[in-house]
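Hey Z.,

So I finally got round to the adenosine monophosphate thing we talked about over coffee. Here's the setup:
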Amino acid sequence: MNILLLGSGGREHALAWKIAGSPLLTRLWCAPGNAGIAQEAECVALDIANHQAVIDFCKANKVDFVMVGPEAPLAAGIVDDLAAAGFKAFGPSKAASQLESSKGFTKDLCQANNIPTAAYQRFSDAAKAKAYIRQMGAPIVVKADGLAAGKGVVVAMTIAEAEDAIDMMLGGGFGAAGAEAVVEEFLTGEEASFFVLCDGDNALPLAAAQDHKRAFDGDKGPNTGGMGAYSPAAVMTEAMCQRTMDEIIQPTLKAMKAKGMPFKGVLFAGLMITDTGPKLIEYNVRFGDPETQVLMLRLMSDLVPALLAACDGQLKHFDLRWYPDAALTVVMAANGYPGDYAKGTRIEGLDVASNVDGVEIFHAGTKADGDKILSNGGRVLNVTARGKTVREAQARAYQAVDLVRWPEGFCRRDIGWQAVAREADS
Ligand code: AMP
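And the result:
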């Protein structure tokens, strides 16, 4: 098969690495890709926001299958446009992508179908939103309705903070994405990321993971796109996974089908595991970044037939095999991230670092300059390792991190700390 992968981050490098190992593959392209992805795929300088350009490439190169990495093209309807042009693409339609592109849509769907989630109200009027905030009290959570690149959520510890968030969002701080806001109950518990492949009717659970969103050790500092992740997630026991499937995932698929927008693709449920069970924090309609990096290291089976089965409505009798091992990824970011940072700084030692047992280094934001590798983003490398335990995976990942020579970068030194502490207790 000729496969085109869309995206340029660590998630796409991990997907390219996995797809490149498929016996079904003839040629793999990635648009636009990065310096690491170039080791697995032919990178092409396509503007993926230009759907016609993507379609033209597919025609010219006899592409059999398009794998969409990020959410923006999905929300813009790239799967619909490719389908209309006769190309099979993995991911939800524009309508079904609303599970990520509109928090209000998802909250209403949960409410109408008794799917456990935080109590909420939707607002476009600041005075009404503030009255609700005062009535509910703090802590309380304020979210922009639309896509805001992971920055649209304010967990407010005081009423004043929540009111400021409303003023910022409804005042245009996130542009159209914040024209409406969701105000919701603050949930307590342990968070987990749960991934399922969906074919419109059936869902095949992948694995669960946990990530670290804060920039600094001890889960302190500003929120980021994610500074590391590991899998499995101890809190997602078999029973908890089953409850999540029965109480959250299956009712969502049923409701989406009834609405005439069956969900196909990967559904990524951000969960809070509360005293009373799993509650949905949010849906994403694509693979997580950096969770995918650990999932791909744990997946034993070929990914490509599973992606095709999701597109073709054939997941019912499908099964995937996983390594029992744990995997962990450490994100190396440019100094200053998630604020301002420099691009174009030189990274050395990657060859030696990737020779550490069980380690794969995925590139999140790099570019090649001759035989040099330069940073080209905020999150730059994902140093990922497999091990018999999270502790072993963590030790291998940091052994490799310490071999990377990049003075202009930093990483957290405590990725996986909760899981390692749990392993020590058991
Ligand atoms: P989201 O982008 O919706 O996943 O939110 C980002 C982060 O904000 C989540 O990973 C949680 O840590 C936190 N968060 C979101 N909603 C809530 C909630 N209702 N209660 C507590 N924390 C939340």
